[in-house]
């Protein structure tokens, strides 16, 4: 019986991981991670948003003598856009501000990736999937990542 329950749990977890990956939007970039991230920062600041942090995962790994392909995370936002979902449900603050990952895959290709805001906030009570701020977040992420990717 324990084996059956264990198998069911593993299957459920694997399904959840696959479903979560479908919620991740990815865009191929032409430059290296650093240059792509610089372009993303410029696009974010140019749009009037605030950059809260730029996390260099690769440097962190190197700091503990571990290897990791180049990977940087940008945390940014605009209170006019982020406050309404937090007013609807304070737990939205767990997922905001917005985040974009710029990383190099095993083949040396650089990607920009982020989770679709509708999916990010989907399970929170009081937040409507059709809320105007979700569409604004989605459009901002598309425009910003396109600018960073050189499109």
UniProtKB/TrEMBL annotation:
The keyword Signal applies. Gene3D superfamilies: TT1751-like domain (3.30.310.70). Residues 55-117 form the DUF302 domain. InterPro entries: DUF302 (IPR005180), TT1751-like_sf (IPR035923). Residues 1-19 form the signal peptide. It comes from the Bacteria. Pfam families: DUF302. The keyword Signal applies. Keywords: Signal. PANTHER family: INNER MEMBRANE OR EXPORTED (PTHR38342:SF2), SLR5037 PROTEIN (PTHR38342). This is DUF302 domain-containing protein. It comes from Roseovarius halotolerans.
